[in-house]
Amino acid sequence: MKTRKAHPHLQPSNCVITHETFEDLPHRHQSPGPALAWPCPFITPAWLNAWWTHFGAGNRLQLLSVDQAQRPIGFVPLMLRDATARFCGGPDVCDDLDIAAVPDKATLVFQAVLTRLRDQGIQGLDLGRVRPDSLTHRALPALLKSRAIPYDCRQVDISFETSLPQTWQDYLARLNGKQRHEIRRKLRRLRAAGEVAYRVVTRPEEVDTALPTFYDLFRASRPEKAEFMNAKMAAFFKSLTVAMAQAGHLHLAFLELDHEPVATVLCFDYGHSRYLYNSGYDPRYRELSAGLLCKVYSLKHAIAAGCRRYDFLRGAEAYKRHLGGVEVPLYAYHLDLTI
After folding, report:
1. Across residues 64-93, what is the average pLDDT?
2. Please, are residues 252 and 215 in contact by the beta-carbon 8 Å criterion?
3. Among 36, 122, 197, 282, fewest CB within 10 Å belongs to which?
4. What is 165-307's CATH superfamily?
5. pTM for this entry
6. For residue range 286-336, what is the model confidence (pLDDT) as tens digits?
């Protein structure tokens, strides 16, 4: 690949870029100085390592740390194919992506990385599905406009989330009357059907035993879910859940009726938020709304655990609105680095 000279207007002063490995990253970013903001779990080393192991083939990995005055100010996980760079991660299993950075240094981090990519002969940068409050969306447009770098930004998807109050009753009070009535009615009907329990798995040593039940309920939910959870995807889910359990972020839970698992949620607790990553249920318990009520129990548990936000993640399923979710747009960027 042809290497070009650095663009003089992009060259930041005092910045050094280091190519990292997954093994070195956790130690490197424990150094003293202002803390990096890691906005979402999908860019943490544990998550990216699991994704790269199972889906990275055909790409070249670039985990870029940006230092200023010998202190880390940013981390940008990229993968390269041909002359295009992208955020490391795949759209099927990474709901939104971003960089990690000291918040007021995000523009400088992007400036340094864009310079590095141009020097490598990279012609395009595609950054898919970023939130409006992401470091990327807040820092990148002004930088690109100031440097006259052509780019396209458009909404490509939506996500849903809700802020969480301090108590379950406060949460119910925020719903409209119909939503509140339906949740209470369905909970009463489930409890009348038998003994109800919400069992949570958090420890790495529990994952091997719990995952087969999760797979069964996930695949049983819908034919497209059964197709999605093939052997390769199941291996990724196992690596991911173990890694996130080791990092203290796993919340894999089962709704049980008379000691029988009838529904499941796979969530991750990260940064005072609970992320609802995937779910499943036994269709035999559809009339009891087992799938929905497992999510309700997850919400209730998140409130009791002190979470401040419940992120339903990508997709426009109706239940997200019924549980108080508010729509969040997701954007994609394409940058032309040839000019």
Report:
1. 94
2. no
3. 197
4. Gcn5-related N-acetyltransferase (GNAT) (3.40.630.30)
5. 0.93
6. 999 999 999 999 999 999 999 999 999 999 999 999 999 999 999 999 999
